[in-house]
Every structure is written in structure tokens, then in C-alpha cells.
Amino acid sequence: MKMNLKTKPTQPSFALESEHSGIVVGIDEAGCGPWAGPVVAGACILRDRDKLAPLLTLINDSKMLTSKKRDSIFEQLIQLPEHQFFYSIGMASVEEIDTINIGKATRLAMERAINSLSLKPTVALIDGIRKPILPQQQVITVVKGDQKSYSIAAASIIAKVTRDRLMKDLDREFPVYGWSHNAGYGTAKHQAALREFGVTVHHRRSFAPIAKLLTTDTLNDI
Fold this sequence. Notes:
Blueprint: H1 15-18, E1 24-30, E2 39-46, H2 53-56, H3 67-78, E3 85-92, H4 94-100, H5 102-115, E4 123-127, E5 138-142, H6 150-173, H7 179-182, H8 188-197, H9 208-214
Parallel strand pairs: 1-4, 4-5
Antiparallel strand pairs: 1-2, 2-3
């Protein structure tokens, strides 16, 4: 008789980091899919890991956490002493996304994040398959890395919370698109607002849905 077992949520570890003797950084991005706003990358180095045990029980892939939990973990991370936690943020603008495409813009944001770190790593663990150009680091891509590595999971939280807060700021400028709730993704509300009010300077014109709207005579470019 077959047993119907529920799959337990994946919990990250330091297994990948422990394979390397140097300084290891985790990198993840937020905002590849949205129709508006920049793409954001986070880079995180966790040190003195034995002292981080209470916080580590909370850290996971940002997509598995509620907004409230992400915000709480984000605040706890950035308040850690610098000798325990090093982080930086890199972004690529809408203009850069439209000029060089979202894949290259994502790699650019990752490169900016790692190059801004005050502690220079020797190994970079990258979530996914996009491999940034980092001549000074050994670069290792990890599929679903934010579910496997604490460093990558922390980076996913830093990137996601940073971008969500940025989109909430843009929402105050253009409230009709619902960016404080949809983070720029093509939700029904977002699409309805685009049809009624047109495309803003914060929309990614190289994305097919936006490019299609720009060819419609009934919409104004705002």
C-alpha cells in the first residue's frame, strides 16, 4: 500500500559554503518577471555562523516567506554586526533592461552587488543559471540555490524586500497601477490601469505586453 507523505519544506544549510575554504558570498535577484521597475540583486556573506543559530531557523527562500516575515528577517539581518554579516545591493534600471535585455541586466545587477561589498569574496554562489562576469571570484551557479544555501537565501530576502519597498515608493507616484501590491507584475489591475492610463517611464518597453500596448493608438505614453 502506498503512503501519501507530505513533502517537508526545504531548509537551507551551509553545506555549499562549507565546500570552499575562502570567503563565500551568496547572490540572488528579485524582479526579472515584472513589467515595471528595476531588477535588484542582493549579495550576502554570513560570518561567525555559530552565533547566528536563532536567525538561521527563520531564513529561507524569500518566496516561501510572507511579506511580514521577510521584512522582519531583513531588519534582523541588516542590524547584525558587520563582522557577522556583510551585504550589498546592486540594481539595473528600466533603461538598462530595455537596452541590453533582462538577462544581461540581471547579471549586471549581480556584478554591481558583489563589487560593492566591503569584504571581497573568493567564491560566489549564484541562484539560478545566469552567470555574472566576476573575474576575481570563482562563480558557481546553483539551481534553486535559495532553498539550499543560507547565503543565497539571505540574498534573496535582501533583494526582494529592497525591491518591494522601491516599488511601494513608485506606487505613491503612480498609484493606479497597484505596484505596492503587485510589485510591477502583470496582474489584472495592472493591465486594466495600463489600458486606461497608458505606459509610464517605469515600464519595461522591451517586454512584449508593454511593447504591444505602445503600438495601440488608444494609449498615451505618460
